Amino acid sequence: MLKIIMRTTGDRDIGEYLSKINNLLISRIQKRDAYENFQNALVLTKGHNAVYLEDDIILCDDFERRVKDIIKPHENEVIQFFSMRKDDIAIGTRYINGAKFMMMQCVYLPARINAELLEYSYTWDRTGHIAGVDLMLADYLKLKKIKYLNICPNLVDHKVSKSLIDPRRSSKRQSLTFREA
After folding, report:
1. Across-strand partners of 54?
2. Omega before 167 cis (within 30°)?
């Protein structure tokens, strides 16, 4: 069973996602802490495969069907559905060394990794990281020598908006390959 989980602080309106994704689970914690919210989302998987979404994305048309179609032949792999790399245009869909993982707007993790990652998250040193979720995942993938599948065109885009975690971050962090249709 696949779970789709959106992480939010409640500061953003997520109604549009609830109407577009069946049985969308919401990971919401009181504190504005992306790391602890991701840990909470990992707990919500309850041993299932999961797609993790952030609350500041634009979904492609028919997102749920498309994401499931891509996952089906790759259900034991880590899959990223949002990125901003130049190779997204030059090369397209490809495997990337896990140590280079970044951006958590939309990522799929199989059940076994969800369980291991939850344990790993309690030991990872997040000192100096406001969010650090993608850095923690990159360190985990590097430790386990796991590559991830980067999907192009991307199925989600990042909205142009100020980060709630760190307003100093650029608001222009958009996909180079996203297409709504």
Report:
1. 7
2. no
